[in-house]
Amino acid sequence: MLSKSDSLKIFTVVTVTAVIVFLFLSYDTLKKIPDQTNEQNITESVIRGKNIWESNNCMGCHTIFGEGAYYAPELTKVYVRRSEEFIKIFLKDPLAMYPGKRKMVKYDFSDGEIDDLIAFLKWCSEVDLNGFPAEPYLKKHIQPVVSGNLASDIAKPVIFDKLCLTCHILNGKGNRIEPAPNLDGIGNIRDKAFFEKWLRDPNAVKKGSLMPKFPLSESTILELSEFLSKQK
Ligand code: HEC
Ligand code: HEC
Question: What is the reported pLDDT for 25?
Fold first, then answer.
């Protein structure tokens, strides 16, 4: 049987040890935060982006760092999952990208505001969250490269790498997001006229297509179609 004073001693030693361990762990965690958040990268633009994020209640539909509402996609890593170009085009007019199908609000942001939001989302994507949320798993359905055509003399429109490779693969570069096809050899099965129609509005060619409609200029569409038709 323990005496009262022995119990008190054990109680005191255990409590004091637990408090010390707790304080040490808290200190250790707090000390790591500036590194994990890349504090030095929090620019004026990131702060403005965060304010726009908050004043427009983006979390009414989205989650970020796991917090918010589950109506719309998690955005912590959206900068990695999509690309800067993709997000820019999307925020300008979300409905144009998914005509008649989707529910993201069109905010009429200025270009500056969009840049700030992107800076904020980029900063979020770089925070070290000990593996949360899981890295976007983008390479799930990569197919072997079948195209023999690596000819670098075919002019590749700049937007192709910035935007199209967010979802497609060509010559082993890019991400393949199901059901976006690998574009190797696409010139063997489709022609230029098809690509032009497709890029103007995928949904008009194939009802219910999951490829968004991008606000591409007519000259970009022609360049892209020329480029795609040569992928043989
Ligand atoms: C009314 C709900 C709603 C609000 C509010 C909202 N969104 Fe969205 N958002 C969506 C939906 C739904 C999608 C999925 C695409 C679609 O359906 O248009 C989306 C998609 C996105 C995407 C692209 C995600 C991807 O993986 O392609 C980004 C970036 C984005 N939203 C940013 C924002 C920002 C920034 C705000 C605040 C300024 C915001 N959203 C506010 C509903 C919302
Ligand atoms: C958000 C992801 C996404 C992006 C970005 C994207 N695509 Fe697609 N693309 C798709 C999907 C999904 C399909 C399959 C559509 C379907 O069959 O419904 C597709 C299909 C295609 C096809 C094949 C059409 C056919 O039936 O043969 C071509 C060509 C194409 N995309 C070109 C492009 C080009 C060029 C760009 C850049 C301007 C681009 N895509 C950007 C998702 C995307």
Answer: 95
Q: Using the CB atoms, write b or e for 170-201: b if 16+ within 10 Å.
A: beeebbbbeebebbbebbeebebeebbebbee
What is the Cα–Cα distance from 67 to 144, expressed in whole angstroms? 38
* Per-residue model confidence (pLDDT) at position 191: 93
Nearest CA to ligand 2 atom 13: 180
- 93 and 58 co-located in one domain: yes
What pLDDT was estimated at residue 138? Answer: 53
Q: Is the CB of 56 under 6 A from ligand 1?
A: yes
User: Counting ligands in written order, which one lies closest to the CA of residue 57?
Assistant: 1
132 in a domain, yes or no?
A: no
Query: Is 24 a member of any domain?
Result: yes
Judgement on whether residues 163 and 193 belong to the same structural domain of the protein? yes
- Measured from the Cα of 195, ligand 2's closest atom is 29
Whether residue 122 sits in one domain with residue 78? yes
Centre of ligand 2 from the C-alpha of residue 119, in Å? 27
pLDDT in tens, 159-170: 898 889 888 999
Q: Is 104 in the pocket of ligand 2 (CB under 6 A)?
A: no
Which pairing describes strands 67-68 and 63-64: parallel, antiparallel, or unpaired?
antiparallel
pLDDT tens-digit profile of 194-211? 999 999 999 899 988 888
pLDDT beneath 70: ranges in the chain: 99-102, 135-154
- Ligand 1 centroid vs 19 CA: distance in angstroms? 44
- Is the CB of 89 inside a 6 Å radius of any atom of ligand 1? no
Q: Tell me whether residue 150 is in a domain.
A: no
Read off the tokens for 112. 């500056």
190 Cα nearest atom in ligand 2 = 27
First to last CA, the chain: 87
Q: What range does the domain containing 219 cover?
A: 158-229
